[in-house]
Amino acid sequence: MSEKHYIKLIVFDMAGTTVNEDNVVYKTLQLAINKLGHNFTLNNVLLNGGGKEKLQAIRDIMKPAYNSSKILEKDAQIAFSDFVIMLKKSYENLTVNTYDGTTELFEFLRKNGVKVALNTGYNTKTARSLLDKLNWSEGQTFDALVTADDVANSRPAPDMILLAMEKCGISNSKEVAKVGDTIVDIKEGKAAECGLTLGVTSGAQTADQLTTADPDFIIDSLLELKQIIRLKD
């Protein structure tokens, strides 16, 4: 890899990118939706719901099964309410890990002048419950957290990345990289006009699926960022 890219801020997705929670959120989404009599596969849930704010994810997953938008919305609200309750129970005893080297990578980046932000389609309560399990804290492990609760428009709109930039004092989006495990993560980065968008194969979607969003790089491990990002002189 000949040319490295000068980046001041990396915005990382959480589940499937930095946090390994064995797709429990999407498995729970699948259960909540299928309680209504559907038979959506986990692959379908991951492809159509990956990375999105979770009520919107439910709408997008279920949409092909409905002729009426009114009935779709009613059932989506039911499924979302069930999902929130079911996820709380799932999380109580959930073992959460990071992907190998993630915490050390964050430390390396921050020591070398690169800000680290986390963003997620989860609500703030869910995001913080994951961070608590990892003993990650804002201002120590990473620089900023932005969740779907913090913005008017969730992915693929650029709002979360723009807020992360504001929190981290970065004004030029070309000095920002977005890393995520879904197509919608990559689309979010492009909408924010990030200097780099990267898809990582550790989570919800495959390299072939990620390729459809035309990221700058597809990586198998976050540690590959060391070969892509140019640090300050």
Main sheet record: 6 strands, parallel
Looking at CATH, which topology of the largest domain would you report? Rossmann fold
Helical content (DSSP H or I, runs of 4+): 40-55%
Q: Could you say which overall geometry the principal axes of the C-alpha atoms support?
A: globular
Looking at this protein, list some descriptive labels.
233 residues, alpha/beta, Rossmann fold, 2 domains, six-stranded parallel beta sheet, two-stranded parallel ribbon, 43% helix
Helix-strand layout with pairing:
Layout: E1 5-6, E2 9-13, E3 19-20, H1 24-34, H2 42-49, H3 54-62, H4 69-92, E4 97-98, H5 102-111, E5 115-120, H6 124-134, E6 144-147, H7 159-168, E7 176-180, H8 183-191, E8 196-200, H9 207-211, E9 217-219, H10 225-228, E10 229-230
Parallel strand pairs: 1-10, 2-5, 2-7, 5-6, 7-8, 8-9
Antiparallel strand pairs: 3-4
